[in-house]
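Supplementary Text 2. Reproducibility record for the structural model of the 491-residue chain.

All settings were left at their defaults, and a single model was retained for analysis rather than an ensemble. We include the record here because the model underlies the residue-level annotations in Supplementary Table 4.
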Amino acid sequence: MTDFLANLPHFNAADLARKFPNGYRIQKVGRLDVEPGEPGGIPVAKNMLSSGRSYSTSDSFSSTTGAAKLTTELFDTNPANYTKEKALQEVFNQRYSRMQFVNIDGELNLVTPEDFRLAPREGDLEALEQEMRESGQADLMWDSFQAVVTKSYSGSFSQNKLTKTVDALAAHYAAQKSILKERFQGEELTEQLERLETVWQTESDHLASEYIKDVNGFLEENGQTGQADKFRESVRAILDEAAANYEEKIAQNPDLLRPAGERDEWLNTHLGYLAASLQMSGRDGVEAQAEVRGEESEVFSLSELEIASRTVNRYQSAVREGYTTEHGMAFDLAMLDMETDTAMRMKGAGDSLRKLMDGLRENVIPKILARTDRYFAQKRANVKHGWESPSWYPPVDRGLFQGIYDAVWNAYRQNGDALGAIRSGADVGRNLTARTVARGGTASRWSVSLMEGGYWDTFYGAGSRYGGAAKSGYQVYAERWQSFLNELGAM
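Retained model, structure tokens:
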């Protein structure tokens, strides 16, 4: 609670008046429980007692932005799903559901609108819509702009997460600039545009910091240092170019600023709705950033950043979880390396990224082997005596792992045929496993894989070892490769 209070803004009447133009209430907080929130996200306050009213977990809200988390729909970042109903809900939340913690003379206080309510009452949204239809304008949605990175980037890894966030942030910037130019003029417009640039730089820095936290930390843990500044400048450059691209599109086609019909003109001045419409007009704003920048470029392209993020995420999972068989580890890591190499070739990655990924692989694989050794050590320490033996779980056979991995990787390097390389690895893997057992290898994972219905026996056929329900080993990798190719097309 003390640390939480120390990091809060001190009371500033002018700022609060701007945040709550229709008036606000300040309530002293008697009790507050704070949780970290989602990984990479913002803290969440819960179970609070303020001026006699108790707020429970179901009323959870952000402690730093004051944006109420009422429905999962409001945190759906797919622009195709941004409806008029969602636009109305966001206006309602900004007017009536905002919560701001402030530090007043060392004491925790909660600021809310005068007419605070967490959810709309019957008729509230209809009344808002009628008001905005009559005025032809929506409220200025600065909160939505400041929440783009938090909503679309923080949390667990997802496919092309950086690309989607860059696109959303650039579209919000271009939309807000257009709204401001339509609504203000003179000195007031100058002040609003200055605020826009401040928010833009803050959110750009936020996204760069999130990327560095996700990717660069793991790289540095594995010997690949000195990249943080380049990553930061790359993200900033990509954002600036994407925003400029959207502005150019608007200049060439002003109708992009009028996506709503005459009856709903107010939607053309609603930040979230207009930004989503710009995104749906085409992805030129980010596609341009995927082009080759040249080997001597001081910044990475968007595709290069996505490749680095994807590869780091997969390696992190492998280090964290380890494997249960040498063949599974060899195939999986070789497949990842083929995917990374193919992505770099297809997207024109420069030598700088290639050296970075090569150095990462050299440092990470020993850690994955060590993590898998710990798994087998645990199995040996917890055998069920009487039917199980510690000898069934020896450490990783490095020769077996490396033999399968090298067979796959070398075959791939010869002709670029990933699935052909997997087949080559399977031929070598079966023979190496048989030789290991013949030399007296005691691991149950080796002998079982050679049995009728075992891994090698069913590698190209139905998974009969599980009653025919499981996919064959080859089918697993064929489907994974096709999924990767589909993902590469969207990268």
